[in-house]
Design goal:
heterodimer, A: 11 helices, B: alpha/beta, Rossmann fold, six-stranded mixed β-sheet, 9 helices, about 30% strand
Chain lengths: ~300, ~230
């Protein structure tokens, strides 16, 4: 038996893998939050609820229409993204000029509403969503067993994060978005329809949450409360990465997932609070976050 | 007299409760450089912000190429062919020099080519990969002017392009603006630096308390120097 600091290697690796998978969800969710915060200056409290809706849309597509996982992976983000654009256009835009606190309250109310709605219909027990046949099974890596679906979740999140990063940092559309974050008025004065850009950005951020929701459906049960369980941690990660920082959100998402996994191995009692401890330390040492720019 | 490109009639504007423009009247003929002169706080910058549509609380009439723009939002007005270069230059820190330059979308055919821009502003090619705000003040001003030339806009609104710059840079900016007129651009220039304005402008409007109180053509300046310095308090 291979040991590392008295911990059997398969146990250590197993926890690290769980950590990494959690990190993948943290990264995709905090990425969407960071995008939305950057352009709308709103802390989107509805993000967790929309992640949950993403999972439920996948469940309903299968349950009602018989549409399977791969189509759901595409359709659910599109449906939830469109829903997000409607929210932005008709609920958030009218209050865009008010204090940002109103946006926070509105999205918080929306989260409660969505959760209440799904709870009313589906209860809190949750529905199961089967892993698609093509992603069943796993690989024996010698030191640990790697389930295929988890490997897929990891790969898909990394690709989505990298693609989003590329879009924001390397393309003209991304440059326009970054410029609008800095000075929306001037970008408008150049002839860019910034309000439309804001709507699309909100929709895209929300679509990322739905994508994470579909990825999560076969791992966790599809449950009306799945969003509120994860979202507080994701907020902490966005703060650690630096509010509005794309790179910060991605990197701290994966790192903190791993870190949480390690804590579960070496000091399980602390695993539920470790991310908040890290957040407190980061806020003391670097108030703008690891990748944030000092205000 | 050549065709009028921009015509401002009885333009009123407010910042919240405070009434800042009290009926501005002036026009900008095609192909000329027109300046708005006046002291700090006279309403010159506000006038530009009204024309481009960034200040929404405005009334009166602003017609561009014969079309009314007063109720339209900034992105629509910009698409008609007006470009704005703000006083604080507005170089984006999170964009490279090149990204800053390529940011404004094309609004019409006939914009300046990137090659021609690099010919006029060689420094922008050399520093293309740098962060926009890492440029010196003068270079940032050149970038701010350069990036609105590509878009195809024919009317340029320049807000104090020489502010805070060394005399040798002011000289260069002057040459560039002169070149732009030669290439057929129409320019509305807001200036506090009267010596610069008198060198560049074909006609001048003096603004005070949100109104045009006097106007001079280029050839009328010499006889009215005393009056103008009185207006400007210099």
């Amino acid at each position: 038996m291979m040991d590392l600091l008295g911990i059997p290697l398969p146990v250590l690796m197993g926890q690290l893998l769980i950590g990494l998978i959690n990190g993948a969800f943290y990264a995709v969710l905090s990425l969407g939050l960071a995008l939305i915060f950057g352009l709308l200056n709103i802390v989107n409290f509805a993000h967790g609820a929309l992640y949950m809706v993403g999972a439920f849309v996948a469940f309903l597509l299968l349950d009602v229409l018989g549409i399977g996982y791969w189509w759901a992976l595409l359709l659910s983000p599109v449906i939830v993204g469109l829903f997000g654009m409607v929210i932005e256009r008709f609920l958030l835009r009218p209050i865009a000029d008010l204090d940002h606190l109103y946006g926070l309250l509105l999205t918080f109310g929306l989260a409660l509403l969505l959760e209440g709605l799904f709870r009313q219909v589906y209860g809190v027990a949750g529905e199961t969503y089967a892993i698609p046949d093509s992603l069943q099974g796993g690989y024996n890596l010698g030191f640990m067993f790697l389930p295929t679906y988890r490997a897929w979740v990891l790969a898909a999140s990394i690709v989505v994060c990298a693609a989003t990063w590329y879009l924001i940092e390397m393309t003209r559309l991304g440059a326009t978005m970054r410029a609008a974050v800095e000075n929306a008025d001037l970008v408008r004065a150049f002839g860019v329809n910034v309000p439309l850009l804001v709507t699309v950005t909100y929709g895209f951020g929300v679509a990322l949450a739905a994508f994470a929701g579909v990825l999560a459906a076969p791992i966790y049960s599809v449950n009306p409360l799945m969003g509120s369980n994860i979202i507080i941690v994701v907020f902490a990660i966005v703060v650690i990465g630096g509010l509005g920082s794309i790179k910060g959100a991605i990197i701290s998402g994966f790192l903190l997932g791993l870190f949480e996994g390690l804590t579960r191995v070496f000091y399980p009692e602390a695993s539920n609070i470790i991310i908040f401890v890290v957040m407190a330390i980061v806020l003391i040492v670097r108030p703008a976050g690891l990748f944030g720019k000092a205000a | 007299m050549s065709e009028t490109m921009l015509k401002v009639r009885d333009l009123q504007a407010w910042y919240g409760e405070s009434h800042v423009l009290h009926g501005m009247n002036f026009e900008v003929p095609k192909g000329e450089i027109v300046t708005l002169l006046g002291r700090n706080g006279a309403g010159k910058t506000t006038t530009l912000r009204c024309i481009i549509g960034l200040l929404r609380q405005r009334e009166g009439s602003v017609t561009f190429m014969g079309e009314e723009t007063i109720g339209q939002s900034a992105n629509v007005i910009a698409r008609r062919g007006i470009a704005f270069c703000p006083e604080e230059r507005g170089i984006f820190a999170s964009l490279s020099v090149r990204e800053n330059l390529l940011l404004p979308p094309k609004v019409a055919e006939g914009g300046m080519s990137l090659d021609r821009i690099y010919e006029l502003f060689p420094i922008l090619k050399k520093r293309g990969g740098s962060q926009g705000t890492k440029l010196s003040g003068g270079e940032q001003q050149m970038l701010a002017i350069a990036r609105i030339l590509r878009s195809g806009a024919r009317l340029l609104l320049l807000d104090e392009p020489t502010e805070g710059l060394a005399p040798v840079i002011v000289q260069q900016i002057g040459e560039i603006i002169g070149n732009l007129r030669d290439e057929g651009f129409t320019i509305l220039l807001v200036e506090q630096n009267f010596r610069f304005a008198e060198r560049m402008g074909d006609r001048h409007f003096v603004v005070e308390h949100g109104q045009v109180i006097d106007r001079f053509d280029r050839d009328e300046l010499d006889g009215n120097r005393g009056k103008i310095t009185g207006y400007l308090g210099v």
